[in-house]
Amino acid sequence: MNTVIQVSDVSKNFGSHIVLEKISLQVNRAAIYGLLGPSGAGKTTLVKMIAGIETPTKGSIKVLDTLMPNLHNMTKIGFMAQSDALYGELSGKENLEFFASIYGLKGEKQKERIEHAASLVNLTEFLKKQVHQYSGGMKRRLSLAAAILHEPQILILDEPTVGIDPVLRQSIWNELYKLSENGTTILVTTHVMDEAEKCSQLGMLRDGRLIASGSPRQLKESTSSETIEEAFLYYGGVRHEN
Ligand SMILES: Nc1ncnc2c1ncn2[C@@H]1O[C@H](COP(=O)(O)OP(=O)(O)OP(=O)(O)O)[C@@H](O)[C@H]1O
């Protein structure tokens, strides 16, 4: 089974506000699929539905061939939300222990996974510190560590590198590549064009509609663009700085 995420004709309204309209897309195993779009385009709402946290108003979403939301599937998904769901009064390590125990990781395995995830995001030496003393970027990094603790088959990351410096951002991307080489399917939202270039597939979202999709190369070639930003503007995206 190559298709891991199948979104079919999905619309989402909040009251009378139409946030997403007739979105269809599929993500194959081990892809790094980037959802690119300006603030308010509907990226977060879409990934929350794929993660099973929100439900579509119309249409359906299947993850690993199972209709979402589905509790069992949620153990196979690592989700890093945009706002960090961390406990400020606990230390970084205690936060990771909490998430590890939710995922059923115990004893030596738990210790090993926490050490690995913390070193990946360069937080090893800060693990004893209380999280309310962390900077915004450190909290992002701790959230990312929490999302990968249980080695999920699918990793969904909502703007994972906001507030993270370029060097660490690159090391996080290197790790995402490694995870994908080992078969993890990654869905990542971003409004940063150079990050979009790093994805194997892209979906361009604007005003709740998927305006284009394909590999970065296909999107550039089919619009005779030098950059993804140019391709996005060609398809009707609005320019979004930073
Ligand atoms: N629970 C909610 N109730 C009402 N409106 C909502 C809710 N969640 C999101 N929206 C609206 O849906 C639209 C899309 O929001 P969403 O957060 O999905 O966009 P986004 O592309 O992720 O933007 P950003 O990059 O700023 O997070 C916005 O207009 C937002 O105000």
Task: Give the radius of gyration.
Answer: 18 Å
Order of helices and strands: EEEHEEHEHHHEHEHEEHH
Largest sheet: 6 strands, mixed
Bound molecules: adenosine-5'-triphosphate
Notes on the protein architecture:
With 242 residues, this protein is an alpha/beta fold. It has 2 domains: 165 residues, Rossmann fold, CATH 3.40.50; 65 residues, no CATH class. It is built from 9 helices and 10 strands. Strands 6-7-8-3-9-10 form a 6-stranded mixed sheet, sandwiched between helices. Strands 2-1-4-5 form a 4-stranded antiparallel sheet, with helices on one face. Helix 3 crosses helix 4 and helix 8 crosses helix 9. The termini are far apart. The mean pLDDT is 92. Bound molecules: adenosine-5'-triphosphate (ATP). The site of adenosine-5'-triphosphate has 13 residues, from strand 2 and helix 1.
Labels describing this entry:
242 residues, alpha/beta, Rossmann fold, 2 domains, six-stranded mixed β-sheet, four-stranded antiparallel β-sheet, 9 helices, 10 strands, 35% helix, globular, binds adenosine-5'-triphosphate
Question: What order do the helices and strands come in, and which of them pair?
Answer:
Elements: E1 3-14, E2 17-28, E3 32-36, H1 43-51, E4 58-63, E5 66-67, H2 71-74, E6 77-80, H3 92-102, H4 107-120, H5 136-148, E7 154-158, H6 166-181, E8 185-190, H7 193-196, E9 201-206, E10 209-214, H8 216-222, H9 228-234
Parallel strand pairs: 3-8, 3-9, 6-7, 7-8
Antiparallel strand pairs: 1-2, 1-4, 4-5, 9-10
Helix pairs in contact: 3-4, 3-5, 4-5, 8-9
The chain binds adenosine-5'-triphosphate.
Pfam families: ABC_tran (PF00005)
Domain ABC transporter: 5-232
Keywords: ATP-binding, Nucleotide-binding
